[in-house]
Write a structure and sequence with these properties.
Blueprint: H1 7-16, E1 21-27, E2 33-39, H2 40-47, E3 51-54, E4 81-86, E5 92-93, E6 100-108, H3 120-133, E7 136-149, H4 153-158, H5 176-180, H6 183-195, E8 200-205, E9 211-216, E10 219-220, H7 221-241, E11 245-247, E12 263-269, H8 288-299, H9 301-308, E13 330-332, E14 339-342, E15 350-353, H10 362-378, H11 404-412, H12 415-421, H13 423-441, H14 446-452
Parallel strand pairs: 1-6, 13-14
Antiparallel strand pairs: 1-2, 3-4, 4-6, 5-6, 7-9, 7-10, 7-11, 7-12, 8-9, 12-15, 14-15
Helix pairs in contact: 3-10, 6-7, 8-10, 9-10, 9-11, 10-12, 11-13, 12-13
């Protein structure tokens, strides 16, 4: 939960005029920052303790439409307040916004001041606590991919998101020459995130024209989720200030590579010094604990896929031959696999879950992976032998759910997630998934009009 700016430093910066605005942000169900811009002096004097927001923010869809049917918030309950409690350990300066600092807030019940159970940050905190009770720290890292466009969001909207000008005209995966053309945004993104206390390891071109990948240094799960959402928000703001646009859609174009968010995860001792997955005498140098953790994630992958792929569009990414997985299995360093073992033979050994798209909410995704991993440990599951070959062509491997409807059905049947997250919390997100499907089912798409306006 590390920012780069203490509260005392903030008070001094406010007094000197270096900071005049503080963003107090919660994370909504879609993984976006939502909150208030405070006059910095008022935040220092009072709002650093708590502020308030409407509880519909955790009961609304991506269009900010209040969704009927939630137990936690509704018109019949009057859409009251919840408490936004700044976690001052997350306080940081935001270099790309003038004289601005940002803090992540926990969402608390207005009456009891307990964590609101269905808030994404509370869901992850609960799973992190489960790890801590066993003497574990979960280290996570999420790789983010996105497309960079020589467009503004306004110009893309006016083009109806068709025929967009990508930052590069052809694929520049790992190519230095072509990605140099994109450095106006990418250099700022690396350096200004670093200055905001989000350590960046590298960026690179990906397998689509104008597609980028940025890699953040691994961290404890909650800290990494905070970094993830600030990075996504900041990337869009930096791009927009440069007259560009960024998209984290899983699949913005049928013929191009999708945007993933691969998640690396491992367990370490409570002091953060001993890797609990590394055993040089074990098969694949993966300890018994690590094998059980991985086996749990494999066993329950279908049940938690929604937490990695929450939208209709998310499932368009799962196509053979696109570096996106289609099968649930693990392999040693094989990019056709749903799960890949990385760092074999070193203390950095870890599992990489390749199922998630860049549209996921990291708090929910990390929580689901932890819950499944702990289930594997508790059940003492045995890890199957690693798959070898092209998983796309393997017919007998279990498949990742192909649609949001499929994923929602398996989510609703998950006894493991009901127990780990809580019945009311799981029901809240099942309702979210069903609403997304309902909204899609009743809409007329451009594809339908193109195909049927004249020919039906």
């Amino acid at each position: 939960m590390a920012g780069n700016f203490s509260f005392d430093q903030l008070k001094k910066a406010v007094s000197s005029g270096e900071i005049d605005t503080v963003l107090a942000c919660i994370v909504d169900m879609q993984g976006r920052l939502a909150g208030k811009r405070f006059l910095a002096q008022y935040f220092v004097d009072s709002a650093h303790d708590e502020t308030h927001g409407c509880n519909y923010l955790l009961a609304a869809d991506i269009d900010m439409e209040p969704v009927p049917g939630y137990k936690a918030a509704s018109w019949s309950k009057g859409y009251g307040d919840f408490v936004m409690k700044p976690d001052l350990a997350t306080l940081r300066r935001i270099p790309w916004l003038e004289k601005t600092a940002l803090v992540i807030c926990d969402v608390l019940d207005h009456h009891t001041h307990d964590d609101l159970p269905h808030s994404p940050r509370a869901i992850l905190k609960k799973q992190v606590k489960r790890l801590s009770e066993r003497g574990y720290i979960g280290y996570f890292a999420s790789e983010l991919e996105f497309y960079l466009f020589n467009e503004t969001y306004d110009s893309a909207r006016k083009k109806h998101w068709q025929g967009l000008d990508t930052a590069s005209p052809y694929i520049g995966d790992y190519q230095i020459g072509i990605t140099t053309k994109e450095e106006g945004v990418m250099r700022r993104l690396r350096n200004e995130m670093e200055a905001a206390g989000i350590p960046i390891e590298n960026s690179k071109g990906e397998w689509g024209p104008g597609q980028e990948e940025i890699n953040v240094r691994y961290a404890e799960a909650l800290d990494m989720a905070d970094r993830h959402v600030i990075l996504k928000n900041g990337a869009k703001e930096i791009a927009e200030s440069e007259g560009k646009a960024i998209s984290f859609m899983s699949k913005y174009n049928y013929g191009l590579a999708g945007n993933s968010s691969h998640i690396h995860n491992s367990l370490w001792s409570a002091d953060g010094k001993t890797p609990l997955f590394f055993d040089k005498k074990a098969d694949w140098t993966l300890s018994t604990l690590g094998q059980q953790w991985a086996a749990g994630q494999l066993k329950y992958a279908k049940e938690f896929t929604w937490f990695l792929a929450p939208y209709i569009n998310s499932y368009k990414r799962f196509q053979a031959g696109t570096f996106a997985p289609t099968k649930i299995m693990w392999s040693e360093d094989n990019r056709t696999a749903g799960f890949r073992l990385c760092g074999e033979g070193t203390k950095g050994i870890r599992m990489e879950c390749r199922i998630g798209g860049a549209d996921l909410n990291p708090y929910l995704a990390f929580a689901a992976l932890i819950a499944a991993g702990l289930a594997g440990i508790d059940e003492k599951l045995e890890l199957q032998k690693p798959f070898v070959g092209d998983a796309y062509q393997a017919s007998r491997l279990p498949e990742i759910p192909k649609t949001l409807r499929d994923a929602t059905e398996t989510l609703a049947k998950s006894k493991m997630l009901k127990q780990a997250l809580g019945e009311d919390v799981l029901e809240h997100y099942i309702h979210t998934a069903k609403w997304e499907q309902f909204e899609y089912d009743r809409r007329i798409t451009d594809w339908e009009l193109h195909r049927g306006f004249e020919r039906y």
